[in-house]
Structures are given as C-alpha cells and as structure tokens.
C-alpha cells in the first residue's frame, strides 16, 4: 500500500493535545498527514501549522478546514480523532461512513455520550464488517517490554496490577483521562478479562481516589489498584509522577526534565523507555498499510475480539462507582 493519507481531527493543543506529536509520529512511520479538521477555520489553521512544525523534513502544511465534508474530501485512508472526551462517537461514525481507519484518543466514549458499551460494540462490528481498523490511543501497553526488563520477569500470569498517576484534570474527568491507562495494561496482561467482579472507590477527596477491585475473565482474575491524585502540584514539582506495580513490585515512570526522555526506575536501576506514543502510532500505520494483518483491537473483516467494548465497560463501571460514592 502507498503511504496512507491521514487526517487529524481536533489536533490543536488547547489542553493536553497531542496533535503535533501524532503528526510527527505518523510521518516518521511512513504516512502523510494531509488535512486537519478544527471547530473553526482559525483553530484548524493553528493546528495544521503546529503539526507541520513537528514534522521533520520539507513536508507541506496539512490543509486546514472547519468543514467535515471538505476534510474527508482529501481522499483519506485514516483519521486520528483527538477531540476532547465526550465528542468521539459521531466523528468515528463519520470516519466509518467515509471508509477510513480510525485511531481515537482515550477515553473512547465519555459523558455526555450515552450507551457507551452498546455503541462501542456496534462500532466494533461495523468496522470489522467494513475491514477497517478501529483502535484507541492506549500507550502504556507499549511500555511492557521495558517493564518486564525492569521487573526481571514476564507480566503474563501476574496476579495483581497497581498503577498511580497524577492527572491534570479533577474529579470524574480524571477518571476518564487516566483510568483507561491501567485498564489497557490489565487487558495486555490478560486479554480474556471481561469486566469487574468486585469494585470499590476510596476517596480522601474527589481529587484523591483509590480504585480497587477484581477484573475477571472466564478462567482468570486480576486484582487491580489504581491511585488517581488530581490535587494541585507545587510550581516546582516537575513532571507528573506515574508508577506501576506487578505482584507488589513497583517501578516508577520518570521523565527527565531537560529533554523529556522517558525511563523506568526500580530502586537505583534505570531503564530507558522508548516513547510509547511513537510505538503506538507506528503500529497503527503498519497495520493499515497491510490491512490483512489483524489490528490491535479489531480483526479486519473478522469477528471483533471485544477488547475495545470491554474496556469501555470497565471504565463505565468505575465512573458509575464514583458517582455512587460522591
């Protein structure tokens, strides 16, 4: 397949936007970023210019538009849906209607969207029937080879998973922003997990949550503990912290401030961590260039494996539990 033509939807860096970094990694993986769709023509131009600045070489600035039909008129093979949480569903539907593969930002579905699990399941079926990839930007599974190096053991067969993060959002929204990370890791550990058998939320405040429960599959279970700390950081606090633990052994994800290089630290040992976004985007491009290969979450033209809708269901369970506890 020729270099895939990719469009970005909502690529402006208004809050935590990754649009320019998606553009960089898409082009590095062999795709062409040809168009950007924004809410306004001005925001689309801003996002297109930012994307062009991140692309190495002499790539042309992507076309900028606020018109959906004009955007899809650029003969796109794939789109990246990077709009704020709660706006993805209709955009994914539009991409499907125009025959495009999709890589969407997480959370895949979120408030005020409704019927998350049902809609995710239907989209899985429809993308699979069309032979199109439907994937979500879950980056943490791409850290697992380095995590296994740091642990000195494989993660397969783990009995417990812990993860802590400091999201920039607060309350319910930080669940949507951060909880998909440990859920995607849990599924990478054990793809057969279908949902929570037990779940509770312990909150010191709505911005300091411990989510504890048991994820279960037909023949397996995984204890999971998630700490979301959305309390304000001190001005000199540095990059936001994150850690992951497997069967009680903790590894910290660190960012070196001077160059933003990523690494895992276990005790005094340091393990360089390849950028998981770069790896995740490269895999998406590789799969859409050879659509006969199974994608991470949809097997093109075959029966979906339900990874996506199951993760959506797990996230909905956490959101519902938070609502019941506040």
TrEMBL record:
Which species is the source of this protein?
A: Saltatorellus ferox
Instruction: Name all Gfo/Idh/MocA-like oxidoreductase N-terminal domain ranges.
Output: 5-110
EC number(s) on file: 1.1.1.18
What gene name does this entry carry? iolG_2
Source taxon at top rank:
Bacteria
Query: Per UniProt, which keywords does this protein have?
Result: Oxidoreductase
PANTHER family membership:
BCDNA.GH03377
GO terms, molecular function:
inositol 2-dehydrogenase (NAD+) activity; nucleotide binding
Q: One short Pfam family name for this protein?
A: GFO_IDH_MocA
What protein does this entry describe? Answer: Inositol 2-dehydrogenase/D-chiro-inositol 3-dehydrogenase
Q: Which InterPro entries does this chain map to?
A: Gfo/Idh/MocA-like_OxRdtase_N, Gfo/Idh/MocA_oxidrdct_glycsds, NAD(P)-bd_dom_sf
Under the heading Gene3D superfamilies, the entry gives:
Dihydrodipicolinate Reductase, domain 2, NAD(P)-binding Rossmann-like Domain
């Amino acid at each position: 397949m020729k270099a895939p033509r990719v469009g970005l939807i909502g690529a402006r860096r208004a809050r935590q936007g990754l649009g320019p970094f998606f553009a960089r990694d898409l082009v590095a993986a062999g795709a062409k970023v040809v168009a950007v769709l924004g809410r306004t023509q001005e925001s689309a131009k801003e996002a297109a210019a930012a994307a062009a600045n991140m692309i190495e070489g002499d790539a042309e600035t992507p076309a900028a538009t606020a018109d959906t039909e004009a955007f899809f008129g650029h003969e796109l093979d794939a789109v990246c849906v990077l709009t704020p949480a709660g706006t993805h569903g209709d955009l994914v539907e539009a991409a499907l209607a125009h025959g495009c593969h999709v890589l969407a930002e997480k959370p895949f579905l979120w408030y005020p969207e409704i019927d998350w699990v049902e809609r995710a399941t239907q989209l899985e079926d429809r993308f699979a029937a069309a032979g199109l990839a439907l994937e979500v930007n879950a980056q943490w599974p791409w850290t697992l080879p380095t995590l296994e190096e740091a642990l000195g053991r494989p993660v397969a067969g783990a009995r417990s998973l812990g993860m802590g993060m400091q999201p920039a959002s607060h309350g319910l929204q930080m669940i949507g922003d951060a909880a998909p990370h440990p859920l995607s890791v849990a599924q990478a550990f054990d793809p057969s997990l279908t949902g929570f058998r037990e779940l509770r939320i312990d909150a010191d405040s709505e911005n300091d949550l411990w989510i504890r429960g048991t994820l279960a599959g037909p023949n397996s279970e995984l204890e999971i503990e998630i700490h979301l700390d959305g309390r304000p950081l001190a001005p000199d606090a540095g990059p936001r912290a994150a850690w992951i633990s497997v069967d009680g052994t903790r590894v910290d994800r660190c960012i070196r401030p001077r160059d933003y290089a990523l690494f895992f630290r276990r005790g005094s040992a340091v393990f360089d961590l390849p950028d998981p976004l770069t790896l995740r985007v490269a895999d998406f491009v590789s799969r859409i260039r050879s659509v006969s290969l199974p994608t991470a979450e949809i097997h093109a033209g075959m029966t979906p494996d339900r990874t996506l809708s199951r993760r959506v269901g797990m996230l909905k369970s956490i959101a519902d539990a938070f609502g019941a506890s506040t």
